[in-house]
Design a protein that fits this description.
GO molecular function: identical protein binding; N2-acetyl-L-ornithine:2-oxoglutarate 5-aminotransferase activity; pyridoxal phosphate binding
Distance between the termini: 40 Å
Cofactor: pyridoxal 5'-phosphate
Pfam family, one: Aminotran_3
CATH architecture of the largest domain: 3-Layer(aba) Sandwich
Protein name: Acetylornithine aminotransferase
Number of strands: 17
Structural class: alpha/beta
Order of helices and strands: EEEHHHEHEHHEHEEEHEEEHHHEEHEEEH
Helix content: 25-40%
Subunit structure: Homodimer.
């Protein structure tokens, strides 16, 4: 009997060791990992440089709380700001917490500047923003809300990439923020249109609405840019990050332009563990390793993998995504059936909405490992489609 609460539908797999793009089970079987802990271990398993940072920091200092200055936190905030849009950063422990911070920032901005008249937050159908009560309310998928009704009533969901539907909600004058993913990960790797994002940015500028980009899954190099919004030349007011920022060590961040960040003053928001010594030491190393050379290689390897996927899935599914955030919306075959068969070939992938199989190799994956993955995928294709 397990004493762990039954909140996950787990695969019957357990791993005891990792090495780069591979995971090993207790029997010594080696699995090619194209899941990366759901876009978390971007720099591979048991990365030696990150392991050294963890060991050194653990021997020095782990935690004092945010009652005191933490120099590595200041350093990390500066790196994110300078490589982003120059904002101020709040640190927490997860993507859901980062999105909670963004939601609170939008609410306090609407309450203080507009006396609470502007209080609604618009999110997209198919979106996913977390499992806390506020973030599940923000999520544009009804299955996430089941059993937790009623959700918070200040969230309004509109169709993704549909500017007219968005404008029809915003024009009433009670919206304070628009929150969206540049690429919907859990929703099935659906990308925002460039014209749509530019129109949304212009609308937010005109009406003083905060534009929040949830980059929990797309950020930290996954798409070939440090932040996915950099593909679009559209700058948000707020961005949320987590997952790949710590390569497995829990950390989240919310960055906001300074004119909005100032609304979160002492006493309005906090996190006991957020931005602690261990998490910041690791995240600083992650950002040092994800340099321009690595990002360029992600773009190149992403194009190579995408072209190979289009070849082998021709007529069998639609290939989606950017960089090494790729997936296939399958025709005729259930995505979970496909993933279970893939496990038999000792390869890991992640399911998503719209019958998508997500393929998220580490950003450090080699061309040879990509070819190995393609061979394994072909075996499953031949088995399931004949």
């Amino acid at each position: 009997m397990s004493f762990v609460m039954n909140t996950y539908s787990r695969f019957d797999l357990e791993f005891v060791k990792g090495d780069g793009s591979y995971l090993f089970d207790k029997d010594g079987n080696r699995y090619l990992d194209f899941a990366s802990g759901i876009a978390v271990t971007n720099l591979g398993h048991a990365n030696k440089e990150i392991a050294e940072v963890i060991c050194n920091q653990a021997k020095t200092l782990l935690h004092t709380s945010n009652l005191y200055k933490i120099s590595s936190q200041e350093e990390l905030a500066e790196k994110l700001s300078k490589r982003g849009f120059g904002g101020k950063v709040f640190f927490c422990n997860s993507g859901a917490e980062a999105n909670e911070a963004a939601i609170k920032l939008a609410k306090i901005y609407g309450n203080k500047k507009y006396d609470g008249v502007r209080y609604k937050i618009v999110t997209m159908e198919g979106s996913f923003h977390g499992r806390t009560y506020a973030t599940l309310s923000a999520t544009g998928q009804e299955k996430v809300k089941k059993g937790f009704e009623p959700p918070m009533d200040f969230f309004v969901h509109v169709p993704y990439n549909d500017y007219d539907s968005l404008y029809n909600v915003v024009k009433d004058g009670d919206v304070i923020a628009i929150m969206l993913e540049v690429i919907q990960g859990e929703g099935g790797l659906k990308k925002a249109d460039i014209a749509y994002l530019k129109n949304v940015r212009e609308l937010c500028n005109r009406l003083d609405i905060l534009l929040i980009f949830d980059e929990v899954q797309t950020g930290i190099g996954r798409t070939g840019k440090l932040f996915a919004y950099q593909h679009y030349d559209v700058i948000p007011d707020v961005i949320t990050l987590a997952k790949g920022l710590g390569n497995g060590v829990p950390i989240g961040a919310m960055m906001a332009k300074e004119q909005f960040a100032e609304y979160l003053s002492p006493g309005t928001h906090a996190s006991t563990f957020g931005g602690n010594y261990l998490a910041c030491a690791v995240a600083n190393k992650v950002l040092d390793l994800i340099d321009d050379e690595l990002l360029q290689s992600v773009q190149e390897k992403g194009l190579y993998l995408k072209s190979k996927l289009k070849e082998i899935f021709s007529g069998k599914g639609e290939v989606r995504g950017e960089g090494l955030m790729l997936g296939v919306a399958l025709n005729d075959v259930n995505n979970m059936d496909f993933i279970n068969e893939l496990h038999k070939e000792f390869m890991l992938a992640v399911p998503a909405g719209d019958n998508v199989v997500r393929l998220y190799p580490p950003l450090t994956v080699t061309k040879e490992e990509i070819d190995e993955g393609i061979t394994k995928l072909e075996k499953v294709i031949n088995k399931l489609w004949g």
